Structure formats: structure tokens, C-alpha cells
Amino acid sequence: MDASTTQSVQAPTVKLLINGKLVESKTTQWRNVVNPATQEVLARVPFATPEEVNEAVANAKEAFKTWRKTPIGTRSRIFLKLQQLIRENMKDLAALLTAEQGKTLPDAEGDVFRGLEVVEHAAGIGNLQLGELANNVANGVDTYTVMQPLGVCAGITPFNFPAMIPLWMFPMAIATGNTFVLKPSEQDPMVTMRLCELALEAGVPPGVLNVIHGGEDVVNAICDHPDIKAISFVGSTKVGTHVYNRASLAGKRVQCMMGAKNHAIMMPDASKEQSLNAVLGAAFGAAGQRCMAISVLVLVGEARKWVPEIVEKTKGLKVSAGTTAGADVGPLISCQARERVESLIERGVQEGAKLELDGRKPQVDGFEKGNFVGPTIFSGVKPGMTIYDQEVFGPVLAIVEADDLEQAIEFINANPNGNGTAIFTQSGAAARMFQEEIDVGQVGINLPVPVPVPLFSFTGSRASKLGDLGPYGKQVVLFYTQTKTVTARWFDDSTLHHGVNTTISLK
């Protein structure tokens, strides 16, 4: 456990949200929420007790009895109000997010905004949760489907998007008629709590949305609890695999969005300036702490000569606290994260990759205690090297080379992950070949981070995803509902039959 759990620090306590009220936890186990740019302790977050977890679930179960029957228009209007409140509080939400997570203020606003888009989508639930009808499938018989909520659902979210990913989860779950128990990251729960407070202000009834905090014990309790029907998870592959296996064995519906190793192909005919700017932004934005970050650049053919330009362009990025004007790269989330990334850089050197740009130990005036690693670039990277095989989750770009597009596609398809990928080219034929042949769930064409808008679903694949249905979009409506098929006949004199019919026919 982090040493901060044992420190006695006079800082505000993060509350639990149970049955519509902010509740002080009775736990004896706490963790500090630390500003990663300054090491200032911002708050103390509780690791909820088993009794508190059970209380949150029990209230959600009770609230489901009435919430499931709430008219769909009433549910929709709550999310219309919530999106208004998020817009009104955008600057404050971004400032809070930056303080506890570290990303730059503009990036923090983007984090909130991408979640806001899902809230807007949830407000249209009346058009999303529609069943089907086939009239007169047999004599006087109609068949139709209804999409009914499951009950109590739960979400487990990571530190890197403390606004967007919770907003991927609870709005769609609640809009479809479920109640929800959310466990945000214990590293930066404050902006998540603020968003949940705004949800209450928007009209979410008591018990419909609950928040508990904690670590492994709370995660396991969520996986095991018999009254939780479905779990949505975003985080590391190790934890996600554990959640999927444990919760599935307990009979739950589970979706897990997990680790990645995202490649971008740079073709020699790409618009160089725009393409390199896009790739470097995707590699080093949020200090590389995105599951959709471009961490591998495949230079094809003549583009292999562009390494010096890539290095020079990267040197122009500004490393500083997220609150600093013009900052491009903020701190990593924790001291442990910084130490891990630095050790992986050292492994890269030891294993034979060429360190083109070393971002370790940058000088950041005024923030000497921050968890900073500057943009780092390796060339000559190969499978089998730790910096290629592992998800670094830091501002480290690995460059590999390929003779042609076919070789580049084969290289990417050999990697087990399938979260996102991109190609930069001016050739329609090359782009079409890429989108057809690449075995990755989300594809960008001249766009480095192909996270879809909420009209579509997040569709990571292979080792990056467990479960059939992705978060938000049309797929998540299916995830959070049970389709019930009804076959009905209403008798009148014209359809009256005499005698017992023992065949399977509906005639």
C-alpha cells in the first residue's frame, strides 16, 4: 500500500455517495490525493468498508424498484439538465481535474467535453431504447421486443480520464433505467465526485447513483456481490482480466476496456507537417497516459529519413505543470509511475534501442518536485524489447521501420493488442487497404486517436477488450438492457379454434 495511507495529513476527506447523500466513511484505511506537479496533498480518499459497499448496493437495489418505472422522458430531461450544468462548470471541473491528475488545462477541458458528449447522447435515450414489432406473424399473432433494464450496475474507472470515463458509464446505465454504483480511481476521485454531485443537482433520485472508493478489496466486492448485474471496467489489462474472469464466474455481464499498444503508419506520401504534428500530439499528450496514445510510429519507405525532423519537432514541446500557460506535457500521475517509466527507458537502452531523445529528469522551473518525464524517442525498436512489448503509459515513442505498407500491416497485426491504429497517407488506395487488412478495432485515417463520437461505440479488440459490447453508442444500450421477446395472440370469434393442438405451429 502507498505510504500516503499511513500519513496523518490534515486535508479534506473525499466522501462516499450513498442514497443521495455525501457520507463520511467509517474506514480506518485512507490514501492521499496528491497534486502530481507539486506533491501537495489535496484530499484524503477512504477505502470503503464491506458494510459501506453493501449499503451502497442495497440502496441502489431499492431505488431500482421505482427508477425502472420512471417515464423515459423524465430520465431524458435529467441528462439534458446535467449537460447544461457540466457546461456551466466546465472551467472549474477542468481546474480540479488538472490539480489532481496533472494534464494541461486545455486537455482537461477536452476530457470533460468528451464525457459531456455521452451525457448529450444519454438525453436521447427515447430514440435509443426502442424495441421491434412484427405484426401478424401468424394468424392473429404479433411478436415484439422490449429492452428492459438489468438492475444494479457498476463501473470501475481509471486515473487517466477521471471525467470522461465515468461519464461513459453512469449516464447511459441510468438513462436505460438501471441504478449504478461507481468506483472511481483512488488516485484522482475529486472531479468524478463533483460530476456526481452535478448529477444529483440535475435530478438523479437518491439511490440511483452511488459512489464508493477503494482498491482491490472493493473491486473484488463489486465482482462478487450477488445484487450487481453488470460491470463496466476501463483500466489495465492485468486488472481488467481479473475483473472479467471473477465477475463472469459470478454470473455478471461484463465489459472490460484494457491495455494497448497503438501503432501509426507514416507513408512517404503523407502530408509531412500536419501528419507529424498529429502523431506527436497523440504520443506525448497527457504525458502518454492514454489507452489510445500512439506509442509506436511505423515509418514506411522514404519516411524512414524523417527521424531527425521528428526529434527536432519534439524538442519544441514544453514540459511543465498543467496550469502553466503553453504547457504541452504535464506530469505523470505519481512518483511510482515516473520511476516505472524511467526504468523502462533504461531497459530500452540496455536492450539495444537507439535513444534519439532522452526525456528523463527534465528541469521544470517552479515545479522541481513534480513527476515529470519529458518526451522520449527511441528508434531501432523491435519486438522482444521491453519498451515495445509493454504498454509504457508515459511520453515514450518507439519508432520502427518497414519497407512497404504490406510489411507495416503485418507488423501491427502481429501485436496482440487491438485498441487503436492509424495511417497517414494521401493515397485512397493505401488507406482502404489499411482499413480492410488491419486487425485492430478502431482505425484512424490521417487522424491519430480514432475514439468515436457517442453515436458510435468504442470498439477496441483482441487483447485490448474483453466482452462483446463496447461502452457508449448503440452497443452500450444492448449491454445495459435485457431484450425480452413477447409473442401475443388476442382471441376473437374469427380466430377461435376447437380442440387441443399439440404441434409447435402458431397457426
Automatic annotation (TrEMBL):
GO terms for biological process: L-valine catabolic process; thymine catabolic process. Residues 24-486 form the Aldehyde dehydrogenase domain. One of its GO terms (molecular function) is methylmalonate-semialdehyde dehydrogenase (acylating, NAD) activity. Its EC number is 1.2.1.27. This is methylmalonate-semialdehyde dehydrogenase (CoA acylating). Keywords: NAD, Oxidoreductase. Gene3D superfamilies: Aldehyde Dehydrogenase, Chain A, domain 1 (3.40.605.10), Aldehyde Dehydrogenase, Chain A, domain 2 (3.40.309.10). InterPro entries: Ald_DH/histidinol_DH, Ald_DH_C, Ald_DH_CS_CYS, Ald_DH_N, Aldehyde_DH_dom, MeMal-semiAld_DH. It comes from Pulveribacter suum. The gene is mmsA. It comes from the Bacteria. It is an enzyme of class 1 (oxidoreductase). Belongs to the aldehyde dehydrogenase family. PANTHER family: MALONATE-SEMIALDEHYDE DEHYDROGENASE, METHYLMALONATE-SEMIALDEHYDE DEHYDROGENASE [ACYLATING], MITOCHONDRIAL. The lineage of its organism: Bacteria, Pseudomonadati, Pseudomonadota, Betaproteobacteria, Burkholderiales.
